[in-house]
## 1
Amino acid sequence: MEWSWQRIPGEYLVTGVRLIGGGKVSARPGFLHVKKGRLEAIGEGRPTLAGLPELAADGLFCAPGFVDTHVHFREPGQEEKETVATGSRAAAAGGFTAVVTMPNTDPAIDNAGMVRYVSDRGREAGLCRVLPAGAISVGRQGETMAELGAMVEAGAVAFTDDGSPVQNGRLMASALQYARLLGVPIMSHAEDLTIVAGGCMHGGYWSMRLGLSAMPRAGEDAAVFRDIELARATGGHLHVAHVSTRGAVEIIRRAKADGVRVTAEATPHHFSLDHGRCRDYSPLFKMNPPLRESEDVAAVADGLADGTLDCIATDHAPHTDTEKELQFDQAPFGVIGLETAFAAGVTYLVRGGKLDLGRLVQCLTERPAAVLGLPLGKLEEGGDADFVLLDPEREWVVTRETLRSRSRNSSFLGETLKGRVLATFLRGRLTWHADDPSVVR
């Protein structure tokens, strides 16, 4: 792909691209006409307009900008790991034009002022839409409900105590009821601490072999079941974060068949890697929920394929090298994932025969946007020109040097993945170019 201009003009054409939308890939090349940050026209074949600057992207695929329902940007309080600005840079490099930030910061995002603070930092960075999720409880302590209404007015798009489960069932039920009136989902970090507290990896063969404390599947399954029953009783919208077990997938599948208002997400590491990756005690494979067994990995992929799991979310969780160099049981949970999500999807889902390219893109665009009820994730005439150019055949090696995040704790370091986001556009403005990373300032 060669660029025909140094500065993106106010009006231009992107030509020769295979358009992706609605879970399908266009049969023949098409074009985008971008004008003043919006999509003036979209279609197959050649545009009839002449005289406009043109990006000839022959052979590439064009999709809506990706939407991530689950990222940790660490600001305020842990800026040494990530900031809203550096996280936005990583998002752009991964093809994401909208991300939902988790509230487990210091202090927590549990009031309107903090919601506005994160939103303002996102606008200042200008590389993706930063949409804060507010905390369910004050200080994420699981005791008193936070001011949900005021946070929605300030721009919060969901509520969660992510990083900590809401153990108080009465509080969770009240939050679901209130959030229903506000028209936003409650995101569940599904974990029963009476079952998994003190554990550091999945309970199975490898935890026994390595002598590490276990986090059994039952801890997730029990919490998912409880929260779904609360959603059933209240009519609230429950969104289950980072599903990792075959049992949770089946519980969600049955609840959807019963008409419960539940959506769910899967992370790239949970549909691609199993607990055997922990065999060398590398904290780069320590996350919560933990990597599970091969049948769980397959169940998560199948859940995405049949729609039980609505979308792919990265759970991008940056940590410093110093933290991730601690012993496995002492290192923090979490791995980054914004920059490798598309490639992991191509490598493990598309090439693995679980999804085709159109459905993979749908799990990164329309479906997460629908979970949040946001008008994003689509290429529509008159809409904002948020789009990405993709090469699903390009191979690349994930190295510390290729990553834009402030942290480097990726489970895919050293791995060759297939599928690359070549360029990202936010409201028609180029925010990432894989062959010229300096575009992202």
## 2
Amino acid sequence: MFGNIELFRLSQAMAGHATTRLNLISQNVANADTPGYQAKDIAPFDALVRDDKPFADLRATRPGHVSGFGGGSDVVVEVGTTVSPNGNSVSVENELLKAAEVQERYDSALAIYKSGLNILRTSIGRR
């Protein structure tokens, strides 16, 4: 029922993107001592929906993603990061900062979803 309302689709896509990005961050932290490992990240969510792309163009990275909102199709290796002597480019401090940013994005997605529900409840006369 709520899948056809654009506001709910947007918040669902934002939450899916945050989940995908947090998975990559956790992989980066887990491989912080792996020789030759290159840190990975994905394009910011606003870059995915900019240029009026329809949400249907977003691809799921695995079957568990809801309604095809994975946002993980743009996984890139980070460039311009400092590489350690063993060839690893993961900075745990940077990954922790990214994780905090992802938490803010996820909280924003939930706030948008809750606001949409409140608007629906108000429009049908419930509080």
## 3
Amino acid sequence: MDDHIIKLHTPQLKVYQSRRPLTLNMAGQRAGKSHLIGIKSGFYVLNAPKIKGMIAANTYMQLTQSTMVAVRKVWQQNFNLTEYDAKGNPHGHYVIDKKPPGHFKKIHEFDNYKGIVSFLNGAIIFKASLDNYMAHDGKEIGWAELDETKDTKEEALKAVILARLSQPGLFYNDQTLQIIYLEDNQDHTGFTPFNPCCINTSPAVGVVKWLTDMFELQEYEKEIEESVTDPERFYYHEIENKAVCIYSTYWNEHHLPDNYIDIRLSNLSENEGLKYIYGFPFGRSGSSFFKKFTKSEHVRPVVYKPELPISLTYDFNAKPYMTLLASQTEYDRNAFEFQIRIFKEYCLASPHNSTRAVTEHFVDDYGIYDPFVLFYGDASGDYRQAGSGDHTQFDTVREILTPYISSSSDKVPKKNKNVLNRRDFVDRVLELKLKVPYGNVEYTVVLIIDPSCKNLIADMQWLKEGLDGKLKEKEKDPDTGEKYEKYGHTSDALEYLICELLDDYYQK
């Protein structure tokens, strides 16, 4: 394909030119993703007809009523490829879901042509709906274009589609990057085998964690947001065998009604606009427990300062780990901020998932600085433990921290505050809407979490809201079969800290 004949906007061109085996093409709605599927599939059909391809969408309705409609339009407009009909269009170039007529070249033959697009030159494309992905197990393909996979199961991609990309013959030139077809008996020197899969999707209503993890998007969240929210910029990144291109609807604005984007934005919330127009994958969803948390704003390196007291806060669930967060607070006179800085998390799994173990780990790390320590946490930690007489979890804390505490160190409440009220109070902090006096000036309360606190960050990002509090999703330990709550523990500890630390402002 000559790039000067087929016109693509810059992000589309970057996706088209990607030679990584796996490419994520994520964009706002109506940004031209399906158009690009049509361009790329048309190129494969005309230039590598012996290579079997696949065009897939999350559901059969999406595939037939949206994806293939757009793709076939591109085939006709850009390649003059039309559907064959014996009477209405006898010079057509492809048939769908039916055995090809006798004058079509036969490179591949099938007993049943349901779900297959057959072309005049012998090329074939499998149509696939990924809601029934196991139906495609066993097929051998050379390239795949997946449309709107944000709701697709991870197994559909990893266990079926990527495993099927094994047909040899497609290569790209190491110097020019041009894609060509080569037979086994041809010289392959200077060429790299190429079985590409491109995931074309807009962001989901929530966050598709397996997809963001696969392309390591969390690590670049701030850079992505800064890029896509500028109508003249987009985000592109290559890492190992993967490429990521994320861009907004603005890049396809010239193909849309003049006021399309303005009208859409006027009818969307800020978070909806970030997803549906700007293509940003991390906008907060309505089901998120912490609706005001954003990694780009609340996560950055925190340096421990030996001259300041340390606040420890506990959650006493033992599975999947026992939780202890270590933090410091300080008034930043230059920024007029009261900063709550979480610099370390201790989330210790068995056999170290005990109050004693997490506290001793803290002392091993920071006892050398002889810090003054305050401790917070779950009020139930001061209830008597079964079989231990009057001994409590916090008695263990007091025993181990004796050299570092005083009578003023105990900040544990008699009773835990309501979970939704705690969340709303934390959201006020996250939204920079809580101010505290310092001298004659009001300082904004700011939460900062060090990037090393991965469990706390995951809690703030992925924890969902249930009917009466946190939706603590269950996972099963693969070794013991024991079920435990995946999220909610580190955020509990954080809430205990913030709500007691700022108790004077809790009801305000």
## 4
Amino acid sequence: MKIEFRENGSIGIETGGTLVLRQGEQEVLIEKPKVSLCRCGHSANKPFCDGSHKTAGFVAPAAVIELKTDA
């Protein structure tokens, strides 16, 4: 799995195919190879990015995290 903190933007996650989103008591299986999560706090579709960071003037550095499993 790869997590990319995009410069002045969202958090991109390469899921490898699926991921589970848990919010409180709710659990949703998401079957997408990539998702973008909000990190500016302005998205109307949290936890997902809707591009609001562009008009909000969000500023943050880029970074990448790669998670590897022994399989």
